[in-house]
């Protein structure tokens, strides 16, 4: 049930999103990184220095309990929002588009980066899904201000960590530099409040405040216009071969339109999809994939994902180029195919094993939620080959 306070906050957010594109670029240029580093500094002031060594994990005894809560709350949310045959994802819910592309490993990488998919100078076919966070399918201007990307590579050789797909490698990233929750314990609390339409209470509840996480997210949330124009960050760590941890990111290389029609009035419900379609009718789009290597176990933690891995401490290193060719993607069959796909960071080469408590939760959570969705829709899991066209 929505409270008067919640309605007032929502009204304020909706109004802010329509004004945001006119003032935010200048503010971001001047203030975003200094404020991000200041908030990050305050977070680190209160953290324990008892952290695992480089590229190592520390398992918690209550992880399964937190995971059970997350899965149960997400399944209840789906049952409330959708009817059988029409279930969508519980997170990264609204599909702006699923497009085909290719990830090409850059030549002459340093030896310590040649691990997993980066071991050889080659290309991989890819399906790339752009989405909004959810958990509802709403007009774009009403959804919170960050976007996500899910990339599924095919024809990937080598041993994998999940046996439901044999030849894929999945990457997931969002437009904020830190994760929305620091740990899976806190994620379970956020899911509790999200199902009750009060996610803002997770951040502002005075009994268990997450105000610094709120500030960090607010610095990077903004009214988005075109998925092809966004930077995307993994926010959580992964192995890059034995004894080496990384986070990754995708940075746009192709200029595209970021016009939002009708602002400051209400724009079309699917203006983000419209801008994506316009950009790919005009020509190809490219992103540069970069990795940042952990070199300090406290300042670049594995088990706390609300902390920035600062590129001033460890620079982002280009490792590959993601190319999305000119195409059309809006057929009903292609959107239905997008719904059947399971994107899970544990679909991966052993050299890229996900690290940390939130990644450990993702393994079962993503698997169970995808199978729950597919069962409700009368669909079966599919491992794509990259040759599919619609």
Structure description:
By secondary structure, the protein is of the alpha+beta class. The protein contains eight helices and nine strands. It has helices at 4-45, 63-81, 184-195, 199-204, 211-220, 271-282, 332-340, 357-376, and strands spanning 95-105, 123-131, 148-153, 169-174, 232-233, 238-239, 245-252, 285-293, 317-324. Strands 1, 2, 3, 4, 5, 6, 7, 8 and 9 form a nine-stranded antiparallel sheet that branches. α2 (63-81) packs parallel to α3. It starts with a helix and ends in a 14-residue tail after the last helix. The model has no long low-confidence stretch (mean pLDDT 93).
Question: In a few lines, what is going on in this structure?
Answer:
The chain is an alpha+beta fold and 390 residues long. The chain has helices spanning 4-45, 63-81, 184-195, 199-204, 211-220, 271-282, 332-340, 357-376, and strands at residues 95-105, 123-131, 148-153, 169-174, 232-233, 238-239, 245-252, 285-293, 317-324.
């Amino acid at each position: 049930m929505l409270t008067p306070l919640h309605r007032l906050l929502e009204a304020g957010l909706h109004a802010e999103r329509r004004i945001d594109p006119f003032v935010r670029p200048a503010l971001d240029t001047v203030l975003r990184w200094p404020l991000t580093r200041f908030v990050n500094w305050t977070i680190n002031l209160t953290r324990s220095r008892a952290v695992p060594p480089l590229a190592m994990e520390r398992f918690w005894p209550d992880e399964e309990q937190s995971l059970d809560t997350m899965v149960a709350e997400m399944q209840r949310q789906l049952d409330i929002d959708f009817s059988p045959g029409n279930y969508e994802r519980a997170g990264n819910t609204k599909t702006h588009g699923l497009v085909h592309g290719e990830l090409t490993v850059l030549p002459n990488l340093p030896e310590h980066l040649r691990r997993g998919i980066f071991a050889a100078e080659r290309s991989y076919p890819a399906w790339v899904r752009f989405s909004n966070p959810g958990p509802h399918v709403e007009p774009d201007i009403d959804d919170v201000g960050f976007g996500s990307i899910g990339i599924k590579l095919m024809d990937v050789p080598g041993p994998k960590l999940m046996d439901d797909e044999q030849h894929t490698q999945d990457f997931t990233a969002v437009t904020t530099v830190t994760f929305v929750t620091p740990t899976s314990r806190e994620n379970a609390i956020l899911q509790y409040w999200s199902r009750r339409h009060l996610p803002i209470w997770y951040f502002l509840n005075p009994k268990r405040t997450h105000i610094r996480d709120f500030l960090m997210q607010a610095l990077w949330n903004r009214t988005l216009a075109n998925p092809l124009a966004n930077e995307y960050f993994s926010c959580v760590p992964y192995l890059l071969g034995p004894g080496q941890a990384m986070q990754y990111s995708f940075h746009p290389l192709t200029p595209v339109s970021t016009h939002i029609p009708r602002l400051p009035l209400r724009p079309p419900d699917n203006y983000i999809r419209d801008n994506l379609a316009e950009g790919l009718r005009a020509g190809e789009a490219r992103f540069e994939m970069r990795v940042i290597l952990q070199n300090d176990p406290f300042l670049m933690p594995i088990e706390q994902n609300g902390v920035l891995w600062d590129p001033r401490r460890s620079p982002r290193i280009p490792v590959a180029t993601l190319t999305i060719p000119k195409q059309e993607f809006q057929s009903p069959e292609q959107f239905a195919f997008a719904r059947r796909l399971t994107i899970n960071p544990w679909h991966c080469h052993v050299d890229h094993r996900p690290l940390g408590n939130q990644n450990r939760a993702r393994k079962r959570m993503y698997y169970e939620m995808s199978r729950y969705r597919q069962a409700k829709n009368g669909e079966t899991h599919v491992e794509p080959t990259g040759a599919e066209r619609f």
